Amino acid sequence: MICKIADFVVEFVNVSTALARRFEPYVCDEAPQASFSINSDDIEHIRTLSKNEMNPFLAEATAFLDKFIRWLPQNNAIYFHASLIEAENQGVAFTALSGTGKSTHTILWQQLLGDKMRIVNGDKPIIRIFEDGSIYAYGTPWNGKEGYGTNDKTPLKHICFIERAEHNSCEKTSTDQALKKIFNQILIPNDPISATYTLSVLDKVLKAVTVWNIKCNMDISAAETAYNAIFKGESNET
């Protein structure tokens, strides 16, 4: 099937019926720029790398994702393990180690802002840089077990690293500090050329956005503290 994902037109070969349903919002009839196929060895490789049990659907979806995201860097784009929202017409990506609570924090923002925000992707957006320097983050079919997200894009303005804490705070951080944390949230290919492209795209992204450290509990006040810091310039702790 042929899909338009992050404004790339790509073909996925021999997709299962279950995965095809997940891809349906992205289907198009344009000529593909690239084609990706997987086999049993690819799926077994993904299962071997995973620390958790994988059902057939997840293993297949991850195997296709692995092929796709290795192609992205040479086209000025990267995959990012994050929950992506749009608020105030700006893209905000929440990222954290698995189990920290990025999805929970996203829902807290939704409770706080209601229809003043939208979830663009719940788990694996794609970030793309264009020749004019603009940076957009896109929804993808890989949107987490909850299926949060849309086939849409938002201008990426903020990347937020989330940590659990008793008290809530939100502060800007440097590009150097961000680099130390972000490698767990992207794929760095083993191939030296692809790795160089990946790091180049990442460097441009981090220099163009505002990076934040959010320390938060699981109360709605955590979302309020972060929102006020990011969009109102209020520095406070709750």
Residues in helices, as a percent range: 25-40%
**Number of DSSP-assigned strands:** 12
Please state the average pLDDT score: 91
Regions with little confidence, pLDDT below 50 for 5+ residues: none
Assembly status: single chain
Q: Radius of gyration in whole Å, from Cα?
A: 18 Å
SS field, number of helical segments: 7
Biggest sheet, open or closed, and with what strands and sense?
9 strands, mixed
**Pattern of helices and strands:** EEHEHHEEEHEEEEEHHEH
**C-alpha end-to-end distance:** 49 Å
Shape: globular
In terms of structural class, how would the helical and strand content be classed?
alpha+beta
Strand fraction band? 25-35%
Give a brief description:
The chain is α+β, with helices and mostly antiparallel strands.
Key phrases:
238 residues; alpha+beta; three-stranded mixed sheet; 12 strands; 35% helix; globular
Care to describe what's here?
Helix content is 35%, strand content 26%. It contains seven helices and twelve strands. Strand 2 (8-12), helix 1 (17-23) and strand 3 form a beta-alpha-beta unit. It is globular.
Give a topology summary.
Layout: E1 2-5, E2 8-12, H1 17-23, E3 34-36, H2 40-49, H3 56-71, E4 77-79, E5 83-87, E6 90-95, H4 102-113, E7 117-121, E8 126-129, E9 135-138, E10 153-164, E11 169-172, H5 175-182, H6 192-208, E12 210-216, H7 220-232
Parallel strand pairs: 2-3, 6-10, 10-12
Antiparallel strand pairs: 1-2, 4-8, 5-6, 5-7, 8-9, 9-10, 11-12
